[in-house]
Amino acid sequence: MVIAFMFHCSWGKEGGYGKTIKETCRAHRCISCRCLHCRLLGFCDKTTRRGIDRMFQRVNTVEPWRRTVDEFDGLVVRECTFTSNHGQRLAGYVYSKAGLSPKGVVIIAQGLGMGGHCYYMPTADYLTSHGYLVFAYDATGMDKSEGNSAGGMEQGVIDLDHAIDYVEHDGEMGKYPLALFGHSWGAYAVATVLNVHPEVKAVVAVSGFNRPHDLYKYISAGNTIIPAFFTILERMRFGKYAAYSSLSGFAKTKAGVMVIQSEDDKNVPVETGYDLYLARYKDDDRFRFVTYEQRGHMFIFFTDASIAYDRMFFVTVNGQPTEYGKEHAFDKKTGYVLDQQLYKEILDFYDGYCKP
After folding, report:
1. 30, 48, 78, 313: which one has the fewest Cβ atoms less than 10 Å from its Cβ?
2. Per residue in 40-51, pLDDT tens?
């Protein structure tokens, strides 16, 4: 969601996930630790591994981003757990309402920077009120899930991959058509995961980017060395997932795709995702593009009145409180009002693809 990067340098003793440099070298059958792969791995590890972990360090949701089910009439949740790639247990949440006859299941993939999934509870409430089960989860290193750090952008795709496996093998949820909803980091995840889950029926990607490299290039103000360095490091850490992109995911599926973005988004600019998708798929009937002029990144789901209220309290780019916000109490009922027209479009889109 709010993506803020800090570059650190620190010395570490381990490479990859818990392997020493020499063990990693043997794993790649290298003759000498002077080979390019291991020199890069050693350099990446010693100078940046812990720094990168800090960039994606554990975040627990705090006020006013925290939401609870008792704020939403009739919304109920069943908590569960499932494992991700390194055995870390992730907290899952099945949202429903009494008397619901599901048309499908929507998995929500969260953004990065404000904790776990609960900021998106209004979306879960809306969808369950209109015939969908919702499965949400806290990503690695967030809220109730295990892990001290996500470790990189691709972890979001990996966690979603495992979440989809969990839902598809669940005795109840697995019976229904599957759709995805993601914002920011989560939008990258829901699009990119199509590389390994082309069976998904529909995807709504809000304020997302095509691949981490595109975002790093923007953040580093056009510097080509830093994005290339991170690309190499992520390929070492995340393997095949680092080779995937949103565009490659779109090409491997017949799913319907709705892309939503605001032109003034400073966190994830349109040229890192939306413009790329539009250029390739503007004439493709399974794609729908929704754009706004002045909704920014964090509050794009809400009414114009709510966004104006939110901007009194929070700096648009990083979500930090303004001077006004430090001195006044934030009213969630005023600041978090969903744009009903937008969500009706999302609902109609899901209904069009989530048919038995």
Report:
1. 78
2. 344 444 445 566
pLDDT digits (tens, 9 = 90+) for 152-178: 999 999 999 999 999 999 999 999 999
Residues sharing a CB contact under 8 Å with residue 145, sequence separation 6 or more, in sequence order = 88, 89, 90, 91, 116, 137, 138, 139
- pLDDT tens readout for residues 58-116: 989 989 999 999 999 999 999 999 999 999 999 999 999 999 999 999 999 999 988 89
Cross-strand partners of 105: 133, 178
Q: What angle do CA 218, 219, 225 make, to 5 degrees?
A: 80
Q: Report the candidate in 52, 230, 219 with the shortest Cα–Cα distance to residue 149.
A: 52
Fold of the domain spanning 68-301+338-353: Rossmann fold (3.40.50)
Tokens linked to 50:
């812990």
Closest CA to 216 of 289, 291, 154: 154
Q: Rounded to whole angstroms, how far apart are CA atoms 198 and 191?
A: 10
User: Domain residues of the chain, as ranges?
Assistant: 8-55, 68-301+338-353
Alpha-helical segments (H) within 295-339? 304-313, 323-327, 332-335
3-state secondary structure (DSSP) of residue 189: helix
Q: Alpha-carbon distance 270 to 209, whole Å?
A: 8
At 229, which amino acid appears? F
Answer yes or no: are the C-beta atoms of 353 and 202 closer than 8 Å.
Answer: yes
Output the pTM of the full model: 0.86
Question: Which pLDDT belongs to residue 51?
Answer: 60
| Strands, E assignment, the chain | 14-15, 19-20, 76-83, 89-96, 104-109, 132-137, 178-183, 202-206, 256-262, 287-292
